[in-house]
Design brief:
Blueprint (H helix, E strand, L loop, with lengths): L2 E2 L1 E4 L5 E4 L4 E4 L7 E2 L4 E7 L2 E6 L6 E6 L6 E4 L4 E6 L5 H11 L6 E3 L4 E4 L15 E3 L3 E7 L2 E6 L8 E7 L6 E2 L4 E6 L1
Amino acid sequence: MSVEAKLVAREDGTLALVAPKPAYWREAPKKGAVIVPGAVIGRLEVLGGLEPIVAPKTAAGRVIEVYEPKLARRAVDAATVLLVLDPNALGAGAEVVAGAASRATEGLVFRSPMSGRLYRKPSPNDPPFVQVGQTIRAGETVGLLEVMKTFNRVTYGGDDLPASAKVKAIVAEDGADLDAGDVILVLEE
């Protein structure tokens, strides 16, 4: 079960994502990362358990500030600003990505089959497995999910998906930590 960050609009036009409760915050996104509504922005550690913390439904933009990103985990309270987003940093692109993510539960999407860290490329110097505008077919590799130092190939397909589809948007970023069911791709037939 995930918990949603609080959203505070600032006078300068940026958006602050605030911790919803006291905890330890870990797995912060990097400065420059694109955040879309519902994206996991880290995990809250409470009494030894980890809860994913997600961006609110009205938050989208590029990360311009991260609260103590160099520490493995950082104590936060219910008023700590975790991230500051610039919704204008991507121009119209932010609206497209945010719109795609908000429609993700309604439209045709490809979801992560399990939890793990997503890698969109076979190696750092190679091109991504999938790009926006590409048509993918059943059995094609979408990415790799790292679980406990083991890389698992994620392939397109499923009973509720067509045999082929065009990639409309890529929601999950390279290196993102995903839970089972998180949206990776927004598709169209």
